[in-house]
């Protein structure tokens, strides 16, 4: 049985990778699909192409995982790809309430099922938004994201990381 793990993945986090790795053990094949929403263009730190590249690098060790993108309704993508299972990761009860509504809508309009996989406790507090915030100040995000994401974030925020490293090396802790 094949499944789709959709999201914006801006960037992919260790929580995403945890859910994806576990899903790859359950399903024969999982397609990680970067959903491209034209209305949100300019709201992402990474371009669609960058997110796809990061995901390909981060998932390279998972032979039953592929990476794709789609613009439009997820149920249309599912129909085109002839896939009927959506994977969604949950971190907290607040995620469940939102995801439950989406799952019901997807089932009603697209006849697809959603399988929820709880994020491991150690990743329950990690979100792409928080990771980007920490990285924007040059903070250590290496445990929260796969290497590909960490490298991409360091490139995006190179100036902040350089300033932080200089500040940490000075005796007074000031730059």
From TrEMBL:
<feature type="binding site">
    <location>
        <begin position="89"/>
        <end position="91"/>
    </location>
    <ligand>
        <name>ATP</name>
    </ligand>
</feature>
<dbReference type="GO" id="GO:0005737">
    <property type="term" value="C:cytoplasm"/>
</dbReference>
<keyword id="KW-0460">Magnesium</keyword>
<feature type="binding site">
    <location>
        <begin position="8"/>
        <end position="9"/>
    </location>
    <ligand>
        <name>ATP</name>
    </ligand>
</feature>
<protein>
    <recommendedName>
        <fullName>Phosphopantetheine adenylyltransferase</fullName>
        <ecNumber>2.7.7.3</ecNumber>
    </recommendedName>
</protein>
<dbReference type="InterPro" id="IPR014729">
    <property type="entry name" value="Rossmann-like_a/b/a_fold"/>
</dbReference>
<feature type="binding site">
    <location>
        <position position="40"/>
    </location>
    <ligand>
        <name>substrate</name>
    </ligand>
</feature>
<keyword id="KW-0548">Nucleotidyltransferase</keyword>
<comment type="similarity">
    <text>Belongs to the bacterial CoaD family.</text>
</comment>
<feature type="binding site">
    <location>
        <begin position="123"/>
        <end position="129"/>
    </location>
    <ligand>
        <name>ATP</name>
    </ligand>
</feature>
<dbReference type="GO" id="GO:0005524">
    <property type="term" value="F:ATP binding"/>
</dbReference>
<dbReference type="Pfam" id="PF01467">
    <property type="entry name" value="CTP_transf_like"/>
</dbReference>
<dbReference type="GO" id="GO:0004595">
    <property type="term" value="F:pantetheine-phosphate adenylyltransferase activity"/>
</dbReference>
<keyword id="KW-0067">ATP-binding</keyword>
<comment type="function">
    <text>Reversibly transfers an adenylyl group from ATP to 4'-phosphopantetheine, yielding dephospho-CoA (dPCoA) and pyrophosphate.</text>
</comment>
<feature type="binding site">
    <location>
        <position position="74"/>
    </location>
    <ligand>
        <name>substrate</name>
    </ligand>
</feature>
<keyword id="KW-0808">Transferase</keyword>
<feature type="binding site">
    <location>
        <position position="8"/>
    </location>
    <ligand>
        <name>substrate</name>
    </ligand>
</feature>
<dbReference type="InterPro" id="IPR004821">
    <property type="entry name" value="Cyt_trans-like"/>
</dbReference>
<keyword id="KW-0173">Coenzyme A biosynthesis</keyword>
<keyword id="KW-0547">Nucleotide-binding</keyword>
<feature type="site" description="Transition state stabilizer">
    <location>
        <position position="16"/>
    </location>
</feature>
<feature type="binding site">
    <location>
        <position position="88"/>
    </location>
    <ligand>
        <name>substrate</name>
    </ligand>
</feature>
<comment type="subunit">
    <text>Homohexamer.</text>
</comment>
<keyword id="KW-0963">Cytoplasm</keyword>
<feature type="binding site">
    <location>
        <position position="99"/>
    </location>
    <ligand>
        <name>ATP</name>
    </ligand>
</feature>
<comment type="pathway">
    <text>Cofactor biosynthesis; coenzyme A biosynthesis; CoA from (R)-pantothenate: step 4/5.</text>
</comment>
<feature type="domain" description="Cytidyltransferase-like">
    <location>
        <begin position="4"/>
        <end position="133"/>
    </location>
</feature>
<dbReference type="GO" id="GO:0015937">
    <property type="term" value="P:coenzyme A biosynthetic process"/>
</dbReference>
<feature type="binding site">
    <location>
        <position position="16"/>
    </location>
    <ligand>
        <name>ATP</name>
    </ligand>
</feature>
<dbReference type="InterPro" id="IPR001980">
    <property type="entry name" value="PPAT"/>
</dbReference>
């Amino acid at each position: 049985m094949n499944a789709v793990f959709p999201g914006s993945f801006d960037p992919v986090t260790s929580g995403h990778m945890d859910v994806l790795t576990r899903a790859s053990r359950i399903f024969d094949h999982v397609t990680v699909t970067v959903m491209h929403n034209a209305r949100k263009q300019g709201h992402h730190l990474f371009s669609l192409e960058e997110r796809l590249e990061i995901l390909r690098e981060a998932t390279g060790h998972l032979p039953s995982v592929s990476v794709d993108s789609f613009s439009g309704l997820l149920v249309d993508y599912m129909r085109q790809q002839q896939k009927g299972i959506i994977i969604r990761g949950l971190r907290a009860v607040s995620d469940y309430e939102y995801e439950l509504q989406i799952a019901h809508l997807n089932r009603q309009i697209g006849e697809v099922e959603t399988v929820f996989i709880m994020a491991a406790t150690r990743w329950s507090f990690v979100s792409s938004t928080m990771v980007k915030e920490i990285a924007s100040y040059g903070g250590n995000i290496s445990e929260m994201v796969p290497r590909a994401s960490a490298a991409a974030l360091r490139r995006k925020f190179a100036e902040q990381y350089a300033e932080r490293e200089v500040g940490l090396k000075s005796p007074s802790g000031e730059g």
